[in-house]
Write a structure and sequence with these properties.
- This protein is α/β, with parallel strands linked by helices.
- The protein has a single domain (about 5-115, about 165-210), classed as 3-Layer(aba) Sandwich (Rossmann fold), CATH 3.40.50.300.
- The chain contains 8 helices and 8 strands; from the N terminus they run βαβαααβαβαβββαβα.
- The protein has helices at about 15-25, 35-45, 45-55, 65-75, 90-100, 115-125, 165-185, 200-210; strands at about 5-10, 30-35, 80-85, 110-115, 125-130, 135-140, 155, 190-195.
- The strands form 2 sheets. Strands 2-3-1-4-8 form a 5-stranded parallel sheet, with helices on both faces.
- It starts with a strand and ends with a helix.
- The site of adenosine-5'-diphosphate has 18 residues, from α2.
- Adenosine-5'-diphosphate binds near residues 34, 61, 67, 89 and 169.
Amino acid sequence: MEETRLVLLGPPACGKGTQGRRLAKEYGLGYFSTGKQLRREVEAGTALGQEADKYLSRTEYVPDQLVLAIVSDWVSKQGGGWILDGFPRTVMQAEELDRFPSESIRSLRALLIDVDREVLAQRVSQRCECGYCSWTGTSDDVKETASCPSCGGALIRRRDDEPEAFRKRMDIYEELTLPVIEHYSSSGGLLRISGIGTQGEVSKRVKDALQSHG
Ligand code: ADP
């Protein structure tokens, strides 16, 4: 598992972040979310963040080259295995990842977390995340406290979780990211699990899928 190199695929709010972080912690892997990193860059007001915000504020994918720059930089600094959450999101990004130095993408696999569109819309309507640490969850998880259960920080709602923005993200996902699934399935590197159920149930499916496919 220490050498696992995994890209997580699936629609918005399918659980990539939750599962990715759990898996990374359990197996001591590096974890990188392009969406989270882009939002950090926007908040920090970096040049990259300002450029990215032009697209994020319209609920569009940011240009491939911009995302590729942050991902290749991060991957090049990893000593062991890693998990990428939210990349690749277009066929061009997947093809560019295939061109990374062979050493850095050895035994690369893709894991698709499948969830129906109606279930996702329901999840997103309740989703909140911590403005400080990487915690994400639903309003059910924080009923008692109204603050982050992990660090006590203030919770925020992502602007792209509003219903209209969510519909747009789903449409873009279907247009640009479904072909990425085909990219990995035709090369035989795709694992697929259902993302319906509790975090623990999905987590078990993730580990079973990785273990049974060496
Ligand atoms: P989710 O998976 O819930 O849609 P993310 O936090 O992964 O959300 O990403 C938020 C937004 O960041 C995306 O909707 C997109 O605009 C942008 N983004 C993230 N990763 C990429 C990528 N690989 N290519 C282009 N845009 C990206």
